[in-house]
Amino acid sequence: MAQSSTMIIIDNLSFGYSDHKILSIPHFEVKESQHLMVLGSSGSGKTTLLHILGGLLAPKQGKVTIGETDIYSLSGSQRDKYRGQNIGLVFQKAHLISALSVQDNLLLAQYLAGMVQDKGRVKEVLSELGLGEKIKKSVRELSQGEQQRVTIARALLNRPRVILADEPTASLDDKNAQKVIQLLQSQAEQYKASLLIATHDQRVKDQFELQLNLATA
Amino acid sequence: MNLLSLSWNYIKARPLNMVLNMLLMGLGIAIILVLILLSSQLEDNLAKNKKGVDLVVGAKGSPLQLILANVYHIDFPTGNIKLQEAKDLTRNRLIASAIPLALGDNYRGYRIVGTNHDYVKLFDAAVDEGELWKNNLDAVVGSNVAQSLGLKVGDTFFGAHGLSVADMEHEEMSYRIVGILEENNSVIDKLILTNIESVWAVHDHDEEHHEEHSEPQLGSAYETGFPEGDEDAEITSMLIKFRSPMGAVTLPRMINADTNMQAASPAFETQRLFSLLGIGVDLLKAFAVIIIIIAGLSIFISLYNALKDRKYDLAIMRSLGASKTKLFFHVVLEGVIITVLGGLLGFLIGHGLTEFLAGLYEKSDEIGLTGLIFVKQELAVMLISVGIGIIASLIPAINAYKTDISEVLAKE
């Protein structure tokens, strides 16, 4: 396979992201290792698009191909598993399972994706994100920024081919926001993953060359 | 990390809730187990001891008392009947066999029973040491008696009048132990057996004051049948086995109407006893069932409320690759873990409480009550409690199954 083969293909996609508005994307491609900023004001359908790409929400019409797989031709549980193994998701708020420790949160991600539970790998990812010392901590003891970094670690853990981040900086201060974007970029590069960040955050929106503006799409 | 430890971590995160649910479940199960343990042991014991006895004939009085005194050896006898009258009755062709009993004395609280070897056969009891009685004043003791009083073959003792410890001793004539029975797990373990003439001799002696101690006298009818006695000779009762079921229809009525004796059926009287006790047992059982249902409800409510806060967690787990079915089982497992722990707690409390009650109640040793046995019904109770855990978590689990991940994740 070539260095920059196509990772995401959207074909003839249409979806309603609120009761009246319908957005359609006739064709769109994202290549391996490509970074894309999805822009648009709130309510423009950024989240909906990311959910469709992540296999969380079936579109009204159209085809979404991740890698070589048409994800909406899979059964529900096959799609869940495919998502767990190939797609890393980061959300606006750092949602971790608060009943579990940092390490168990990551082990859970391996378990639920049907991968081998590898504590070495967990440690490695956490160290890369500067969280090596927090491994045994309860997630309740972490700061907002640390929690968001743990969710990034969780998204990267299974070496995904696609990373989808939905407003990952919205609840962070300037310093942490920059840090998170840089982290996502460097990690995506390291794993040769396609990175899609949906945001309307003025602080970060101009950092990527490739942009998809939903207001004008 | 797996579903079990995931569910367990969620339970651990809310310890007070878990303890409350576990205690409720445990309490309900404990009460039911105590009732099951006590009534099954009681029924078992009552059934074992009345085996082979179709009818008990004794002096007039309460039929239940007659049964309790002569079959189970826990109540006092209703009185005596004339030996001659009893003998006459056994000639009835409906009677296959009759075993005479003469009660009235004890040795340190253990009843001395005058009878013949048929009584030992009735229980399928075997001799552990020595042999069965032959001569007058020979005694054979049950395993419990031998053990707790430290009696050996060759020992002698004085019987005491009456059936409880404090009564006066017959100090003139002593019994000699010729045999010890093997453990039989029945009432015979707690009896001292001899022939009927010995019981008579001990009593007659009080009045006559002879000294004919030295020569052992061979008893009459020690193996089977009735001893030779004078006109005034009396026995306490006889245990009758029918030749045909017809006996059950005609004999009791005939005896009760035409003689000075009373006939009572062990089967009928124990059933009557149980139906009297049964009302209390049923009430307690209903009470325990209500507690278990409340426990199930409490588990349902706490899971339901907890899952409202956990919608986001569930959506995240889905986004990490968990299938709908996995989340369903994750929630059900939580209910099951709580009920299984509650069940185990109830199991411990139930057996502990039964053992404690058995220790508290003096007579329990005579009936053979213990908290350290296990009956099949317990397994059923455990399975039912797990079933309740599953039912209680079903609605929350279905909600978890139906979580719309996209909607939940988009909300915040």
TrEMBL record, chain B:
This protein's name: ABC transporter permease
The UniProt keyword set, sorted, is:
Cell membrane, Membrane, Transmembrane, Transmembrane helix
Where does the protein end up?
Cell membrane
Protein's organism? Roseivirga spongicola
Task: Show the Pfam families listed in the entry.
Answer: FtsX (PF02687), MacB_PCD (PF12704)
What GO terms fall under cellular component here? Answer: plasma membrane
> What is this entry's stated membrane topology?
Multi-pass membrane protein
Q: Membrane spanning segments where?
A: 20-38, 286-307, 327-349, 379-401
